[in-house]
């Protein structure tokens, strides 16, 4: 095929020739083309990986552009190797020829396939058979590995709606909600759950073969393999807080996506590499354990490492330098195949064009709500939905074929698009379709891995729709705060930037720090407030006061500020701390709720305390277990936000770095809309609507996340469930070496909120993290030959 492609290009491109100046016969030209194609293929196989490894010092996105020029250079070298000078091309033509040849080779070789077609299936068999031969009969682990695949920002309600519309057939099949179809499409939608007949002949000796007979249309759906469990986030419903707790067991003192710390004078931003590294350090010091992925784990495309040995595109590592900085290792693994570079580049360009067209249609049709989608956003969207997705999926496939015990990967595509197009928009639905195809591809490869795998699908938060605060009222939250303080308000309202995770990934790939001042108003004088935005959650801090200001102090300094905020129609409620009454929730028309007031109900610890680490008590020192006063008799402004709102707000009030004033936007329980303080029409970060209702989709082979009637509350509880599943697959738990100077006590163990499970209730509570710091470890490599792994239990 490469020879034919080269001949065709020689006939089309005037500056590309495969014959001497005097002309050659057709046979001679074909021989020349075959020599050129062979030399090009050989150089690509031998030289390309070395070039890409050398170029790891170059920013990742620049590397993607250099791929074309390097490919062209290899082609020029290949043409120079043809005897008698019959091959020739100028530099520009060589780049075009090399790109086209790589694209054709990619398509014909199956690299562009994302469904279970014959070409890709044969390629999988060859990969699996090659690894089996390489193992040479060695014993491999018989216990299943676990894949934790995070669909960033996909809420429980959005998932259910997508299943009902047929957007995600792979997930629907896992839940037993899709009809099996006959023919090749049925096999394609099954996504590798079984292997077609005749597979053993194609795969060679030792390849697995499981017959799958086609079903007639209208047949009942296959039995489910997974169960779906919704869970409830903390007040800070965003990736920084949720993923930190899921991977490391604690999100204590993470009040928002971004917040100001008075003791250091720094603004912490969850997707800033330096901040992510510090948050991970604090979580490890607090729990005393390295994380969910400790021992033979892999972390792909995440904000935090989870204690994994294998890292790729992990933001907390991007701030480091030296041998341990492997945050961009996934780019090498992916771009070492030139066909991948061409495929991703073409898809990238197509996605940019798609976004420009969709945003233009939205503007011409005057859709509301709408935010600006110009500037660099089309390229950021394409990076999240194409480049990062392809690299992360390829890394996960490599982890499975390597037989790693646990993998956690974050796919951010939906979250990025939903921020700007809306959580239920047509744009977002198209992304869900493509993500489902990626899940099918991963499932296909799982059937050929050297060990069985359980696939756990989850989300870290959802998204709530609604227009922006600025669009509705013509001013930002910072302007409203300044007005309440009696400070001048600029005539032109400032825009706050989106805090989407994809932006940080792009900047990390370019080796540029996350922009300072994004989504925040920095004061010109130290006495002025710092106002930060995290979705529909706002934070107001006074930097000249070293401690958290009380309500009484705020009223003395700015008597109009709290009434201005509380009575604004775009504000749902405020959280402040009173010197006399403790935590207070303020609402319109003088509404006030005392969260610390003891009421009849169960007692328990909301969040334990403990030393931060070797340095002893510091900014993270916990005042000790807090008594849970139980359900509020009168929730006041919190009534519309659900029964768990008071517990979530009370827990955040206990954080050392909670802002002087926490502002949650208005929420309409009828249509689920909120008002974002950032420039997003799909937002998350506070309370209100679908943003607080993510999901956990787990195989039936694992124990239920919660028993019937129970509720999964908080990201720390999700960590306990995922860690329990790792222990179940091992059949035992092993104590790991603590990375902190002191092991956590029972008081420091994160627990599930007991407000939803009264003392006399039969609903069980998800077990807390054990106080003896038992974390999952790799299971002993017992049992069966590597060639037999694929025929073992493959429950997904």
Structure in words:
The chain is of the alpha+beta class and 796 residues long. The strands form 7 sheets. The protein has an 8-stranded mixed beta sheet with strand order 8-7-9-3-10-22-4-23, with helices on both faces. A 7-stranded antiparallel beta sheet has the order 12-13-14-18-15-16-17, with helices on both faces. It has a two-stranded antiparallel sheet with strand order 1-2. Strand 15 (571-578) and strand 16 (582-586) form a beta hairpin. The longest helix is centred in the N-terminal third of the chain and has 29 residues, at 26-54.
Write the layout of secondary structure elements.
Blueprint: H1 2-12, E1 16-18, H2 26-54, H3 60-80, E2 87-89, H4 91-109, H5 118-135, E3 145-151, H6 156-164, H7 169-174, H8 183-190, H9 199-203, E4 226-232, H10 239-248, E5 258-261, E6 266-269, H11 273-287, E7 297-300, E8 310-312, H12 315-318, H13 329-335, H14 338-364, H15 377-402, E9 406-411, H16 413-421, H17 426-446, E10 453-458, E11 464-465, H18 469-473, H19 477-484, H20 501-509, E12 520-521, E13 530-534, E14 537-541, H21 551-557, H22 561-566, E15 571-578, E16 582-586, E17 592-594, H23 645-653, E18 661-665, E19 667-668, E20 673-674, E21 682-683, E22 695-699, E23 712-713, H24 715-730, E24 734-735, E25 774-775
Parallel strand pairs: 3-9, 3-10, 4-23, 7-8, 7-9
Antiparallel strand pairs: 1-2, 4-22, 5-6, 10-22, 11-21, 12-13, 13-14, 14-18, 15-16, 15-18, 16-17, 19-20, 24-25
């Amino acid at each position: 095929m490469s020879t034919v492609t080269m001949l065709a290009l020689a006939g089309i491109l005037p500056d590309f020739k495969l014959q001497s100046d005097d002309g050659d016969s057709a046979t001679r030209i074909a021989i020349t083309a075959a020599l050129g194609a062979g030399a090009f293929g050989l150089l690509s196989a031998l030289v390309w990986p070395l070039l890409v490894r050398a170029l790891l010092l170059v920013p990742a996105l620049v590397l993607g552009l250099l791929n074309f020029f390097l490919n062209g250079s290899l082609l020029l070298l290949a043409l120079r190797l043809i005897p008698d000078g019959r091959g020739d091309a100028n530099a520009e033509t060589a780049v075009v020829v090399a790109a086209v040849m790589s694209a054709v080779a990619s398509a014909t070789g199956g690299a562009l396939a994302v469904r279970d077609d014959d070409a890709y299936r044969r390629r999988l068999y060859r990969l699996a058979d090659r690894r089996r031969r390489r193992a040479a009969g060695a014993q491999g682990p018989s216990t299943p590995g676990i894949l934790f695949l995070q669909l960033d920002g996909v809420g429980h309600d959005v998932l259910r709606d997508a299943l009902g519309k047929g957007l995600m057939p792979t997930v629907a099949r896992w839940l037993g909600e899709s009809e099996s179809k006959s023919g090749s499409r049925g096999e394609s939608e099954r996504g590798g759950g079984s292997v077609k007949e005749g597979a053993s002949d194609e795969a060679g000796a030792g390849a697995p073969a499981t017959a799958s007979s086609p079903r007639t249309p209208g047949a009942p759906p296959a039995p489910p393999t997974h169960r779906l469990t919704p869970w409830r986030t903390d007040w800070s419903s965003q990736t920084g807080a949720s993923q930190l707790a899921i991977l490391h067991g604690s999100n204590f003192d993470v009040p928002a996506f971004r917040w100001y710390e008075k003791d250091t004078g720094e603004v912490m931003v969850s997707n800033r590499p330096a901040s992510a590294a510090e948050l991970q350090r604090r979580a490890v010091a607090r729990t005393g354990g390295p994380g969910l992925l400790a021992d033979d784990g892999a972390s792909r495309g995440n904000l935090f490492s989870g204690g994994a040995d294998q890292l790729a595109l992990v933001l907390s590592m991007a701030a480091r330098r030296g041998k341990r900085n492997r945050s961009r290792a996934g780019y090498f693994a992916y771009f070492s195949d030139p066909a991948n570079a061409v495929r991703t580049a073409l898809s990238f360009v197509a996605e940019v064009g798609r976004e420009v067209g969709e945003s233009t249609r939205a503007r011409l049709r005057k859709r509301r709500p709408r935010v600006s989608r110009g500037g660099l956003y089309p390229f950021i969207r394409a990076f999240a939905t194409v480049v990062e997705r392809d690299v992360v999926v390829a890394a996960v496939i490599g982890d499975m074929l390597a037989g790693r015990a646990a993998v956690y990967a974050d796919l951010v595509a939906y979250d990025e698009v939903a921020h700007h197009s809306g959580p239920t928009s047509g744009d977002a639905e198209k992304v869900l379709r493509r993500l489902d195809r990626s899940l099918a591809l991963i499932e296909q490869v799982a059937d050929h891995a050297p060990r069985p795998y359980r696939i756990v699908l989850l989300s870290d938060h959802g998204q709530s729709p609604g227009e922006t605060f600025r669009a509705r009222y013509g001013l930002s939250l910072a302007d409203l705060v300044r007005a309440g303080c009696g400070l001048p308000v600029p005539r032109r309202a400032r825009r706050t930037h989106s805090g989407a995770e994809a932006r940080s990934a792009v900047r990390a790939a370019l080796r540029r720090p996350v922009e300072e001042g994004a989504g925040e108003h920095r004061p010109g004088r130290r006495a002025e407030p710092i106002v930060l935005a995290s979705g529909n959650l706002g934070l107001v801090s006074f930097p000249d006061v070293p401690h958290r200001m009380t309500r009484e102090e705020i009223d003395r300094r700015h008597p109009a500020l709290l009434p201005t905020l509380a009575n604004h129609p775009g504000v749902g409620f405020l959280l402040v701390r009173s010197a006399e009454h403790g935590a207070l929730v303020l609402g319109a028309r003088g509404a006030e709720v005392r969260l610390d007031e003891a009421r009849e109900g169960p007692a328990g610890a909301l969040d334990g305390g403990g030393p931060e680490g070797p340095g002893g008590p510091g900014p993270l020192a916990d005042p000790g277990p807090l008594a849970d006063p139980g359900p509020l008799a009168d929730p006041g402004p919190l009534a519309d936000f659900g029964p768990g709102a008071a517990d979530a707000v009370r827990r955040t009030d206990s954080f050392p770095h909670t802002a002087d004033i926490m502002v949650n936007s208005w929420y309409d329980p009828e249509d689920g809309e909120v008002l974002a303080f950032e420039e997003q029409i799909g937002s998350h970060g506070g309370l209100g609507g679908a943003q607080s209702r993510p999901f956990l989709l787990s195989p039936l082979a694992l124990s239920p996340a919660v028993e019937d009637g129970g509720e999964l509350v908080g990201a720390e509880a999700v960590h306990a469930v995922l860690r329990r599943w790792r222990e179940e697959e091992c059949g035992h738990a092993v104590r790991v070496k603590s990375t902190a100077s002191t092991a956590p006590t029972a008081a420091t163990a994160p627990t599930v909120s007991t407000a939803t499970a009264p003392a006399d209730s039969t609903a069980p509570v998800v077990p807390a993290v054990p106080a003896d710091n038992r974390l999952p470890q790799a299971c002993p490599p017992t049992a069966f030959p590597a060639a037999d792994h694929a025929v073992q239990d493959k429950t997904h």
